[in-house]
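cache lookup: miss for this entity combination. No prior model stored, computing from scratch. Input as submitted by user K.M.:
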Amino acid sequence: GENVEQHPSTLSVQEGDSAVIKCTYSDSASNYFPWYKQELGKGPQLIIDIRSNVGEKKDQRIAVTLNKTAKHFSLHITETQPEDSAVYFCAARWLGGGSNYKLTFGKGTLLTVNP
Amino acid sequence: DAGITQSPRYKITETGRQVTLMCHQTWSHSYMFWYRQDLGHGLRLIYYSAAADITDKGEVPDGYVVSRSKTENFPLTLESATRSQTSVYFCASSEQLAGASDNEQFFGPGTRLTVL
């Protein structure tokens, strides 16, 4: 099955700086890589995703890059704001048998943006 | 539009008791999932369901039972709770679009369960 490693586990930045979170995956059959943001006391929420036929995707201050050869993908947040403080999870979709809708999640990164 | 709800939001129980966590979604999504979230482990899949009456084990199914008699409900039962099942439990749902490779999962607000 799929295995997703996420780094770092905690990240602290100053407001206005950039933040980068990196994930690696093990199964070359994975073709969908979403990122979820979890605010305190809430469930995770999708913020951006990328498919394996695209190398980069951007949405305002957030972007995701994918390197299929190296099997890693990254989340980039520019001009960070205090409201970006949250736990971020990466995930990969494992194409295995009839359960190809399952997501495998990384262990999460706690991002703190200091004002 | 209520979306996906979980109840109770907080539960304290004792070792050996049976506990059922409820999950309800109003979108008629085909797929539903149960995860547990623990520090250092992220989100781990317990059970999932592709449709009513179709369920399957995830990564950590031991000690849990699920059922899905109706599309909108996906209860999770701990038949004999143990301290190691103290966790935050999240239910999620998604729809599989024909020909699409992506399927956003929508998460509920979570249930914090403490087993004493």
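stored under new cache key. Chain B has a mean pLDDT of 92.
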